[in-house]
Amino acid sequence: MNLIIRLLLNALAVFVLAHILNGVHVDGYVGAIIVAVVLALLNLLVKPFLVLLTLPITVFTLGLFLLVINALIILLADKLVDGFSVDNFWIALLFSVLLSILQSLLQSFIKDDK
């Protein structure tokens, strides 16, 4: 149940940011849910390989290259989901940073069942 709530909160964050940022477009709330699921799957499956492949440059930049990897994940989700579009890399970078901040704010309201 907690996973579904987190996905819905992430979809809400995607929906809100798509209306705030000019370069990000999403087709309704259902599209935002699909984007949240695709982003979760990409972060689970693709991101670890990208982090491992780019480990030397990530260490060299003291972790700042992870922002580039997050932007690439956003651009990959743009290619995979029809109702979601991001105009360019810089908008994807800004979107990924704001999405991370908004997700952590929204998920701070959820109690963990430990």
Describe the protein:
The chain has one domain. It is globular. The protein is mainly α. The chain has helices at residues 2-20, 28-45, 47-53, 55-60, 65-80, 89-107; strands spanning 24-26, 84-86. Keywords: Membrane, Transmembrane, Transmembrane helix. Pfam families: Phage_holin_4_2. This is Putative membrane protein. The chain crosses the membrane at residues 28-46, 53-77, 89-110.
Gap between N and C termini: 14 Å
On the 0-100 scale, what is the average pLDDT? 93
**Number of self-contained structural domains:** 1
Rounded radius of gyration (Å): 14 Å
Uncertain runs with pLDDT below 50, 5 residues or more? Answer: none
What general outline do the C-alpha atoms trace?
globular
Read across the widest sheet, the strand sequence of neighbours is 1-2
The main pleated sheet reads as: 2 strands, antiparallel
Helix content: over 70%
Instruction: Supply the number of helical segments.
Output: 6
The tally of beta strands, per DSSP, is: 2
| Percent of residues in β-strands | 5-15%
SSE order, as H and E? HEHHHHEH
Structural class, please? mainly alpha
